[in-house]
Design brief:
With 352 residues, the protein is of the alpha+beta class. It contains ten helices and 13 strands. InterPro entries: Kinase-like_dom_sf (IPR011009), Non-receptor_tyrosine_kinases (IPR050198), Prot_kinase_dom (IPR000719), Protein_kinase_ATP_BS (IPR017441), Ser-Thr/Tyr_kinase_cat_dom (IPR001245), SH2_dom_sf (IPR036860), Tyr_kinase_AS (IPR008266), Tyr_kinase_cat_dom (IPR020635).
C-alpha cells in the first residue's frame, strides 16, 4: 500500500489525492492561489497502471534491471507481453548509473511507441506511477536470431536465412530509416525471431531520431558492428546502420560465429579503420558476398542504403534456389513432366 500525504491529510492512492484537489478546488501551492486543478489531462492509451500488468517468469537480467514475461490488460483484453523493469537502487554509488539507465529506458519507450511494423518489436506502453518503472512490449518467445542460429547450428536452410532472417531484418531497418531513426545497435543478438520465423528488431536504447547523431563523451559502443567513419569521428548516420547490417548478414551465414574471431575490440577497430574486412563464410549462396561488400564499403557515400539492400535481396538473392532443396525440386519437376507426357499420350489415344 502506498500512502500520499497533504499536510494533515493522507490518501491511500495518488488518484485519491488528485480527486481531493479537483473536488475541493484547493490550490496545489497555497502561495499561488490560481494553482487549481481544472482541466484533466487524459491518460494516454500507452500509459498503464501497475495493476494492469501481471508479472511472470524472468526472461533475462542485467546490472540495472530485468525482463519478465507477463500479461497486460489493454481495453479489457488480456495480452501476453514482455516487461522491462528498472531495478530499485539503494546504493548511492550505483544511483547515477541507474538514473542514466532509466533515462535510456524512457527514451526507448518514447521512440518505440511511434513504430508499427511487422519486423519491429511492438511497444504497448509504460507504467510509471511508482517503482519499479515498467516498459511493456510484445513478447517474442523464440529468442534472438543469434541464439536460434547457435541452437540449430548447421540445420537452418539458406532459404530461411535469406527470406526470413536477412530480408526480415532489412525490411525492419528500412522502415526505421524511412521514419528518420538510426538504430545504432543492429546485430543478430538484438533481432528477435518468432516461432513463425519473423525477424523483429528490438533494443532501441541507443537509437536516435534524425539522420545524423554525434556521440558526446566516451561511451561503450559495439566495436565489431560499428562503421569505420563512426569509429573515427563518433558520428552516426543511417549508413552506420547499413554497415552493422552487413556484419549481421555475416553472422547469419556463419551460423552465429563471433565476428572477427578472436580479435580484440581494439585490434578490430584498428583493422576496420584501415580497410580490413572479413572473408564471407564458407558455403555462402550466390549474391550474399556481394551484399556484404556493398553494405560494408569503407566510404559511406559508396555504401548502399537499406533501400538498395532490400531491392537486391528481393530481386537478386531471394529468388535463387535453396541448395538444400535443389534435388527435391528436380524430383518434383521430373514427376510433373512425366505426368504431362502421360496425359498427352492419353489424349492422343482418345482422339484417335
Amino acid at each position: 500500500m502506498h500512502w500520499y500525504a497533504l499536510e494533515d491529510f493522507s490518501f491511500p492512492s495518488l488518484d485519491d489525492l488528485i480527486s481531493y484537489y479537483v473536488s475541493s478546488q484547493q490550490p496545489i501551492n497555497p502561495q499561488v492561489l490560481t494553482s487549481v486543478l481544472k482541466t484533466p489531462v487524459k491518460r494516454q492509451v500507452w500509459e498503464f497502471h501497475h495493476k494492469d500488468v501481471t508479472l511472470k517468469e524472468q526472461l533475462g537480467v542485467g546490472a540495472f534491471g530485468e525482463v519478465r514475461a507477463g500479461e497486460v490488460f489493454i481495453l479489457g483484453r488480456k495480452y501476453e507481453c514482455a516487461v522491462k523493469l528498472a531495478k530499485k537502487v539503494q546504493d548511492e554509488a550505483e544511483f547515477a548509473h541507474a538514473k542514466e539507465k532509466i533515462k535510456e529506458m524512457m527514451h526507448e519507450a518514447r521512440l518505440m511507441r511511434h513504430y508499427d511494423h511487422v519486423n519491429i518489436v511492438r511497444m504497448y506502453g509504460v507504467a510509471v506511477d511508482y517503482e519499479p518503472l515498467m516498459i511493456i512490449i510484445e513478447l517474442v518467445k523464440g529468442g534472438s536470431i543469434l541464439s536460434d542460429l547457435r541452437t540449430r547450428k548447421g540445420t537452418v536452410s539458406h532459404d530461411e536465412k535469406i527470406n526470413c532472417m536477412v530480408l526480415g531484418t532489412a525490411n525492419g531497418l528500412c522502415y526505421l530509416h524511412s521514419r528518420g531513426c538510426i538504430h545504432r545497435d543492429i546485430a543478430a543478438r538484438n533481432v528477435l525471431y518468432t516461432g513463425t520465423k519473423i525477424a523483429k528488431i528490438s533494443d532501441f536504447g541507443l537509437s536516435r531520431e534524425g539522420c545524423i547523431y554525434r556521440m558526446k563523451g566516451s561511451k561503450k559502443v559495439p566495436i565489431k558492428w560499428t562503421a569505420p567513419e563512426t569509429l573515427s569521428t563518433f558520428t552516426y548516420t543511417l549508413k552506420t546502420d547499413v554497415f552493422a547490417f552487413s556484419i549481421l548478414v555475416w553472422e547469419v551465414f556463419s551460423d552465429g560465429d563471433e565476428p572477427y574471431g578472436d580479435l580484440s575490440s581494439a585490434e578490430t577497430k584498428r583493422r576496420v579503420m584501415a580497410g580490413y574486412r572479413m572473408q564471407p563464410p564458407a558455403g555462402c549462396p550466390e549474391g550474399i558476398p556481394e551484399l556484404m561488400k556493398r553494405c560494408w564499403e569503407q566510404d559511406p557515400d559508396e555504401r548502399w542504403s537499406m533501400d538498395d539492400a532490400v531491392d537486391f535481396i528481393k530481386y537478386r538473392i531471394a529468388k535463387l534456389p535453396d541448395d538444400d532443396s535443389i534435388g527435391e525440386r528436380d524430383s518434383r519437376d521430373a514427376k510433373a513432366n512425366f505426368m504431362m507426357l502421360h496425359f498427352a499420350m492419353l489424349a492422343f489415344c482418345i482422339l484417335q
